Amino acid sequence: MAVQGKTAKYSLSNVRFSEAALGTLAILLGVYVAVEATGYNDESTYDTLGPSLLPYIIAAGLILTGLPILAGAFTARMDVAPAEEIDWRPVAFVVAGLIVPIFFIVTVGWIPVITIVFVLGARAFGSRRTLLDAAIGLAFGIVTFVLFNFGLGLHLPGGWLYTRFFG
Prior knowledge:
Elements: H1 17-37, H2 53-74, H3 88-104, H4 110-124, H5 130-152, H6 159-166
Helix pairs in contact: 1-2, 3-4, 4-5
């Protein structure tokens, strides 16, 4: 029920359903991740944190993000100016940066893919210096590849270019 009067803080008549759906979805996804994380068990005796720690952190983040979104959907707000038009170009660059590794990281390898992802991310944030962004992305890709493969012993995919030159 809506609270009567002009100063109603919560009102069902002014519910923003898209925000309510987003908040509910985030909360339900967080609960699902937490429930699924309870099934992780590697039976190690030396590791007290275990493999379920990160899913629990993600679940808590989803729930703690969903709660204020859901509460905000029911909160009465003052009239605001209409939302600005969304610039879809940066969104497309970010989406491309998320999709490129899925299809190319195994075949092309870590270093070129990370270079491309860095360039796409920089372009999404408004950078127009593609060569500089590529150089920074290349350096970042090389450093992380060397640190993971040779420092930590965790093998990132080298791709055809790496195996051609280094074997």
